[in-house]
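Working notes for the structural subgroup meeting. M.R. asked for a predicted model of this chain before we commit to crystallization trials. I am recording the input and output together here so anyone reviewing the notebook later can reproduce the run.

Input as submitted:
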Amino acid sequence: MHLHEVETIGRDALADLQVRALRATLERARRSPFYGRRLAESGLGPQDIRSPGDIRRLPVTTKDDLRAEYPFGLVTCPREELIRLHASSGTTGASTVVFHDRQDLDNWSDLVARCMYMVGMRPGDVFQNMTAYGLFTGGLGMHYGAERLGCLTVPAGPGNTQRQIKLIRDFGVTALHIIPSYALHFAGWLEREGIDPGELTPRIALIGAEPHTGEARSRIESLLDLKAYNSYGLSEMNGPGVAFECPEQQGMHLWEDAFLMEVVDPETLEPVPDGEPGELVLTTLQRHAMPILRYRTKDITRILPGDCACGRTHRRIDRITGRSDDMFIIKGVNIYPMQIERVLLGIPEVGQNYLIILDREQDIDQLRVKVEIKAEHYRDDPAAMAALHRHIIHRLRDELLVTPGLDLMPPRSLPEAQGKAQRVEDLRPR
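Returned structure, recorded in token form:
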């Protein structure tokens, strides 16, 4: 099927495609020890799939399942057919690992190239990949997609901002892959060095790998003088290329020929209506070496109702507002870190860096926010600083419904991350 036909396929034809792909996925999945047991217990076989919704007859798969089956319990093919693995860091528990065969890598590269083409990248563009390579999927996933599209690909990796600038200038880079927190750090570096972003050649930035707000994206676009497109992926579903913004920038099209999507209540696991927030659950439809069924991503989003003006028929999800396990409760109110970022980066006086601190006093959880103020607004004027403090507190209280502690910090006083930013410091006793 031609790429344009895939992206604009009718919903009935897409459902037929998903049914065929889901039957083949179940047939393949039961070759693995884990799904062999699970499918036998459920009694669900490929012949029982008559609509995409029949997948709900299966239990969900969790990260704990992947850890328990480490390393090969979900693999469906002979090990000599495996040619790539990616793994989590395992910093909060045992590692999880995902394996790919040749067809998996080809499909993944095609999906990422599809995303890049959608936002305006073309053969001949020069693509600078400013994220980490290795077990992290973002580096190699974007790299292979750019090469598949026909772009000159610069595997710069993260950090070393001065070298990044030299590469951009020397090779006329037109597109970047950069995580949002480093993009803001990068913009601050340009400002301090007196470099006008308008003199640089990039016109497109692909941003993802960590949740971020629309306010963060707007800052990145303004500070770097380019268009920034939101990306969503996770290693269990390949990595980048699961969902991507189109030029309309009104949600991310999730590629439903490759992934079956559900949005469910995190507590009951029942589906929620389109437009309502819930946890994203995904099933692979193109994976050969290690298909995964009904994976709980823990990512909170919603399906955006209605059609997209771009003409693509694959449904859109909203930007990720956080993870169900990132939520914290202060004075009985559920709070996600992204709510705090949305407020802070919507205030012109606020700089690029902030830190959320959770602590406990007299058995009560407390929230404190440290935020850098731009140099031109951080001055020895107690009245002005007090007024700014009140303004930020007021905005945070309106959003969060609780009043946090707040510290206004001078520029560059908080730790700067050139990888994924650690925005939350939890000091509460375990």
